[in-house]
Design goal:
The protein has nine helices and six strands; from the N terminus they run H-H-E-E-E-H-H-H-H-H-H-E-H-E-E. By secondary structure, the protein is mainly alpha-helical. A hairpin with a 4-residue loop joins strand 1 and strand 2.
Length: about 220
Amino acid sequence: MTETQLEQAQLDAERDAKEFKLMLLLLLASRVEFRVDVGRFYIDGDSVSITTIREYVRRIETRIGKRLTKLTDQLDRGVIETAEWRREFERNVTSAHVLTAALALGSIRAAISNADVQARIDSELDYARGFGKDVDKGKAGTGPQIASRARSYLLAAAVTYGILEQRIRTLLTGYTECRRIRRASESCPGCIAYSYRWMAIEDMPPIGSLTCRQKCRCYLEYR
């Protein structure tokens, strides 16, 4: 990503954080802090639970998913052109990854300046642009099919959070072990094999690295 693209991505993510009421990322009150030494948010000295973080991730997926559905409906009705749809699709995919990365790294600014986040966004946008070309050529199917496929790209944003959370806990915190918690009955064989077993953090395959890849709904607990 270029400097201009990074600056725009930060502005977009900050705007979306306000719209989605992601209060942890807005850092509007002194009662909210992110402790790098343990990789967690705290409110009034109490740590924010993984349940709350996962709810934030779901909110990001849901709100941006609805936005993409609306955009696709506008495209289907001829209200907007494919070029505008493609720009907004890529902007929203980028914002989703920045916001989920920020939940792992402590702030939107930290996410934007992180090389791993930038590389992950570049990789995801490569896939997204292939989809955008299919839309341009009329090869992406009907409006509902386009909307469904567009929303599927948001699944990788949750994986971004899981990957970065694991890295920060490996590098910057005192945690040494983790276990995989499955959240989907159709989990792949790899997720099933690794689930609920405590092991060294570095031995745990990262979220999204097994057969289910970006569709993985697992998360990690640490100790």
